[in-house]
Amino acid sequence: MNLLENNILNEYLEQTIDPVSHLLSQIERETYLTKAQSHMLSGHYQGRLLSMISKMKSPHKILEIGTFTGYSALCLAEGLDRQQGELHTIDINDELEEQVTGYFESSEYKSNIHFHIGDAAEIIPTIPGPFDLVFIDADKKRNELYFELVLEKTNPGAIILIDNVLWKGKVFADMQDKRTKEILNFNNKLATDHRIEKVMLPVRDGLFVLRKK
């Protein structure tokens, strides 16, 4: 599928799904206007998928690794029990803290969201589990570390989502750089990991959906 066909497909897909809240539209607009890496934002289609998975799972506790500007966290929060549910989201970029905190405070989930700034590998062990739903979308070179850390803090039936597993199609290329090889190797490990059930979805940059046995 060429770029034009892909854009037409994405436009059609977005026409068939539910609209997003004013706050999510604001976050998307301001991210694309002010952030050099705006492509990291989940966006309308993937955001609705995250929301749907969360609502289907009805998680009590969610963990997100890689907050960026908070869009995906708010989508995942839509499936939480508003009275008792918790979403913990971690990002290492303290320059985004004030902006993202403002978005969370403006949302209906402000009392459910706990925003952590720092190294996820150090923070994850300090957050009480178990997690029912996990979204890993941070530095790709540590995906395997994050996966092992969160697998220890989940019960059977928990869902783990890992983003960017197609890496802009580079996993199919004959010539692969170091990062692409790391992602491909990790994908192959997950494909043969008997602790989980798995399916990869060709959504945006690829989303691995894992279920702990």
TrEMBL record:
<dbReference type="Pfam" id="PF01596">
    <property type="entry name" value="Methyltransf_3"/>
</dbReference>
<dbReference type="GO" id="GO:0008171">
    <property type="term" value="F:O-methyltransferase activity"/>
</dbReference>
<dbReference type="GO" id="GO:0032259">
    <property type="term" value="P:methylation"/>
</dbReference>
<dbReference type="GO" id="GO:0008757">
    <property type="term" value="F:S-adenosylmethionine-dependent methyltransferase activity"/>
</dbReference>
<dbReference type="InterPro" id="IPR029063">
    <property type="entry name" value="SAM-dependent_MTases_sf"/>
</dbReference>
<dbReference type="InterPro" id="IPR002935">
    <property type="entry name" value="SAM_O-MeTrfase"/>
</dbReference>
<keyword id="KW-0489">Methyltransferase</keyword>
<dbReference type="InterPro" id="IPR050362">
    <property type="entry name" value="Cation-dep_OMT"/>
</dbReference>
<protein>
    <submittedName>
        <fullName>O-methyltransferase</fullName>
    </submittedName>
</protein>
<keyword id="KW-0949">S-adenosyl-L-methionine</keyword>
<keyword id="KW-0808">Transferase</keyword>
